[in-house]
Amino acid sequence: MIRVEVLGPVTVRDEHGPRPVKGPRHRELLARLVAARGRVVPLPVLIDDLWPVAPAGARSAVRTFVSALRAAMDPAHALLVTEGPGYALRGVAVDAWELERLPPEAALALWRGPAFADFPDAEWARAERGRLTALRLSAVEALAQQRVDGGRADEAVPDLEAHVAEHPWREEGWRLLALAHYRADRPGDALAVLRRARTLLADELGNDPGPRLAELETAILQRAPRLDSTPDRLFARAAAAWSGSAAATLESTVTLLRGIALSGAGPVDAARQRPAVIAAAEELGDPVLTARVIGAYDLPGSWARSDDPAGAAAVVGAAERTLRALPDDEPSLRARLLATIALESRGLPGARGGAAAREAERLAREVGDPALRAFALAGRWMQTFHRCGLAAERDALGRELLDLPAASPNFAVLGHLVRLQALSALGDLGAAAVHARAADDLGARHDRPSVAVLTRWFAAMRAAHDGAPDAADRYRAAAAELRDRGMPGVEHGLLDLALTCLAVQRGEPVPEPVEPGPYAPWIGALRGGPTTLPDPPPDQLQEALWVLAGRAGLTAGDDALVARAAAALAPAEHEIAGAGSGMITVGAVAETLRDLRAYDCRSR
Questions:
Q1: In terms of C-beta distances under 8 Å and separation of at least 24 residues, what long-range contacts does 187-190 make, across chains too?
Q2: Residues 118, 41 within the same domain
Q3: pLDDT at position 242
Q4: Taking residues 27-35, what's their average pLDDT?
Q5: Residues 206, 234 within the same domain
Q6: Is the pLDDT confidence value at 161 over 60?
Q7: Looking at the domain assignment, is residue 336 inside a domain?
Q8: Domain boundary at 334, 366, 383, which?
Q9: Which residue of 53, 101, 252, 394 is surrounded by the most CB atoms within 10 Å?
Q10: If you average pLDDT over every residue of the chain, what do you get?
Q11: To which H or E segment does residue 18 belong?
Q12: For the domain that residue 163 is a member of, what is the CATH number?
């Protein structure tokens, strides 16, 4: 894949590194076409932009430059095309064209210096350089906002100090710096920042601070509760109100934690506070109250691996104890406890989670409450990963979730994500994309930021499935957006697994992993390590891991591993391995099974 970089010196790269581009005029012509963003630039315009006074033979010179650039980029593909009266770049990756669709951290990582750094005085670059610089500054501020909102205010301060020093007219930078100090428990420093901003804006620009700065100063002086939006601070305020008989406070605290998790500000932080609230409820000795506290956190997960295994185990233990103490005439509460056990037991071996899911579903159907049924179906879905090849069953559950009357936005989003994953596994990526768009729309309308993170991974997976040459870059961009989103059970090791699967799919050497996390045994086996592999955990990635195990067994000549992988994958013969995650793929299961079975025949 050819990549053109202009966020710094103009460079052309392929997968092996920089490619030679002859001289400054060649680079300027290429940069001028990048600035056009895929539009045709007529030959006379190119001549005027390249020379203040066009020399004789300028037309021939431009054509020579074009020929040399084509040779330097990729002679086998039409990347620099002749169209009508001029030239355009098509089908090439360009760093400047990616900025608007990347998350802030990934976008900032593209910058190596000023845009079009080789041509600081070129008039043709002025407008595009200004646009790109504005995008960079907005990304700096967006990243700072994420850190401030995510409980990392201290981490945001140094970058924001540099930002306001370099761009003192940007009031958003000053606002974020003051807010970061306040969230780091330094209200005096926050007010000092606002005083600095007011003085500088008045002295340099003759302007008073805008309304957002003035509103922030007032809120800081009043210690407004809305400024305390990090999970720890919110939880601390709620916890401070507890008393020995504060049943209502306990239930409202669970509702608060549920809201924090839904907002995306700190889902793991919220979940980790949950066992403490449940423990406080248990101390009151009222199983009905404890059941309400446990069951009120009815958030459906979208990934069959826990973000906090220890916390999940504590919740399951409390739910089991409460279930034993709860009167039999509380079917709704019993269903909620059983659904909680099913959800929090996800990704674990054993029969208890599945049994709890089935019983929760039975009770919910008897009660006739659609919301309770949705919660039970979410638990049932989490328990459909006990073997390979169950995508069709999961798709049916997704359809039922979407057909429920008055389904809440949370369960409607889950229904679309379940169908996205199941249809991807079944090979119908077009239908899966319809559900991705629907989930995105619901996520945007109901402020569920994690949805867009998951659907970005789906887009990267689809690119990999379709053989897009930039699939690896898309995976990396999706991983950058996932970082620090409070979904460690999803994030940990996923990028290395995705790149490994992509290499296997392409028949390329497996790259050295950086942070393989829980997938290290399977990636290591493919790279020549031990093939004494455990069975993959029962989650969305088990088919992909069995494919990797089978491929490692083929390479190592491990008869037992080949046989295990073939037996495990057989029920999924008509599925796409890994695509049931909606995030990665390692190709059709049938292709791996063919090779495993052929090996088995040869080894007899």
A1: 187/220, 187/223, 190/220
A2: yes
A3: 46
A4: 93
A5: no
A6: yes
A7: yes
A8: 383
A9: 394
A10: 86
A11: strand 17-19
A12: 1.25.40.10
pLDDT at res. 261: 60
The CATH number given to whatever domain includes residue 262 is: 1.25.40
Under a CB-based contact definition with an 8 Å cutoff, are residues 201 and 209 in contact?
A: yes
- Whether 275 and 336 map to the same domain: the answer is yes
Span 76-101, average pLDDT: 83
φ, ψ of residue 87 in degrees (nearest 5):
-135, 155
Same domain, 235 and 379: yes
- How far apart CA 80 and CA 63 sit, in angstroms, is 12
Nearest-angstrom CA–CA distance, 124 and 122: 5
Is residue 389 situated within a structural domain?
A: no
- Confidence (pLDDT) at 566: 96
Tokens 């390249």 label which residue?
50
Distance CA 341, CA 356 (A): 7
Range of the domain at 485: 475-603
Per-residue 3-state assignment (H helix, E strand, C coil) for 129-169: HHHHHHHHHHHHHHHHHHHHHCCCHHHHHHHHHHHHHHCCC
Q: What's the average model confidence in pLDDT over 15-25?
A: 84
End-to-end CA distance of the chain: 43
Backbone phi, psi, residue 21, to 5° = -120, 130
pLDDT digit string (tens) for 270-279? 566 778 778 8
The answer on 52 and 9 residing in a single domain is yes
Residues paired with 19 in a beta bridge: 12
Q: Bigger pLDDT: 344 or 233? A: 344
251-255, Cβ contacts within 8 angstroms, sequence gap of 24 or more? 251/289, 251/292, 251/293, 251/296, 253/277, 254/293, 254/296, 254/297, 255/296
Give pLDDT tens digits for 304-354: 888 778 888 889 999 999 999 999 889 999 999 999 999 999 888 889 999
Query: Residue 452: what residue type?
Result: A
Q: 240, 246, 211, 245: which is closest to 225 by C-alpha?
A: 240
Asked whether the beta carbons of 213 and 200 are under 8 A apart, the reply is: no
User: 204 and 123, same structural domain?
Assistant: no
- The one-letter amino acid code at 103 reads P
> What are the structure tokens assigned to 593, written together?
């099974």
In a domain, 318, yes or no: yes
Q: Domain count of the chain? A: 4
212: left (phi over 0), alpha (psi -120 to 50) or beta: alpha
Q: Examine the pLDDT at 253 and tell me if it is beyond 70.
A: no
Residues 220 and 234 grouped into a single domain: no
* CA gap 264, 570 in Å, rounded: 38
Q: Which of 210, 226, 242 is the last residue of a domain?
A: 226
